[in-house]
Automatic annotation (TrEMBL):
Belongs to the universal stress protein A family. It comes from Corynebacterium silvaticum. PANTHER family: STRESS RESPONSE PROTEIN NHAX, UNIVERSAL STRESS PROTEIN UP12. Gene3D superfamilies: 3.40.50.12370. Pfam families: Usp. This is Universal stress protein. Residues 11-145 form the UspA domain.
Length: 302
């Protein structure tokens, strides 16, 4: 059955900095690449006023102390990656860190950008810095968010798709189905039901039917086939708030949760909504946010 899907390139951009949260992002990149035909592009951003850029390490001299420091950090990052994972380190110039990361991901044809959490996050899970916040409101590729202290070595063991009747269901469900099938891991389909919010009331316990209503018929039929074949499971997460609804969900250490963009997202871009932001503060595993229309391969609007 045909459904909206976008061919994966097998390249992941890791937004690296020589800090604890940079290492969290690197660890998530490694987990995503483990036992997969996936390569990592480890990227550090330097101000455009500098003259150096490109792939590291190289055999020419360093033009500044800053370049030498960044090159050393990238070499240390490369040294920490398992030998069975292909990785390249590079410096990218840009005045805006978020814009430079997104442009690099597009130029390198990466499937996502992986970022880490700064210290001081709510419940010690995730606190957004300025660059991450900007990416979550403008990126044209999916953003994977590593929680503070992430150290799971991989491979990824399960994908959880969180969806409801709001915008973005087609993208998040089709992405989750496609990636779970390619990875050969279980897919958990979670229908989010918030009491008192008319557009998050859900359709009872029939998750495939909820997918047909919120996304499209074909995706609902595929979900039903995956359930019948034992390749997927379903959960209705309900509560008086997002935090309450997800509090009873059990999580695997190697799990990734996938969510969609807000209804405010313009075509081709990511915009994290209130619901996803609340989940980010409540879910203990990495989260991937999908841009509006991403799986349909639409052009960026603006």
């Amino acid at each position: 059955m045909d459904f909206p899907h976008r061919r994966a390139s097998g390249r992941i951009l890791v937004a690296y900095v020589a800090t604890d949260y940079g290492k969290d992002a690197l660890n998530l990149g490694i987990a995503l690449a483990k036992e997969r035909d996936v390569s990592l592009d480890i990227v550090m951003i330097a101000p455009r006023s500098n003259s150096f850029s490109g792939v590291y390490p190289h055999d020419r001299g360093y033009s500044s102390i800053l370049e030498e420091h960044i090159a050393t950090w990238l070499e240390e990052a490369l040294a920490s990656i398992p030998k069975d994972i292909d990785a390249t380190a590079r410096i990218v110039l840009g005045d805006s860190e978020a814009e430079a990361l997104n442009d690099a991901a597009v130029e390198l044809n990466c499937d996502m950008i992986v970022v880490g959490a700064r210290k001081g996050g709510i419940l010690s899970r995730f606190h957004m810095g300025a660059a991450v916040n900007a990416l979550l409101h403008s990126a044209t590729v999916p953003i994977a968010l590593a929680p503070k202290g992430y150290a799971y070595p991989g491979p990824i063991s399960r994908l959880t798709c969180m969806f409801g009747p709001r915008a973005g269901s087609v993208d998040v469900i089709s992405n989750a189905i496609d990636r779970a099938s390619k990875r050969g891991v279980e897919l958990r389909l979670v229908s989010l039901v918030i009491h008192g919010e008319s557009d998050l009331q859900g359709l009872g316990n029939d998750v495939p039917n909820a997918i047909r209503q919120y996304a499209d018929r074909v995706l609902g039929d595929i979900a039903q086939h995956m359930l019948d074949d034992g390749k997927a499971s379903t959960v209705v997460a309900s509560g008086n708030s997002v935090e309450d609804a997800v509090s009873d969900l059990a999580w695997d250490p190697g799990e990734i949760v996938i969510v969609g963009s807000s209804r405010l997202a313009v075509p081709g871009r990511l915009f994290i909504g209130t619901t996803a932001s609340r989940m980010l503060r409540s879910v203990p595993v990495p989260m991937v946010v999908i841009p509006n229309g991403y799986m349909r391969g639409g052009e960026t609007d603006g």
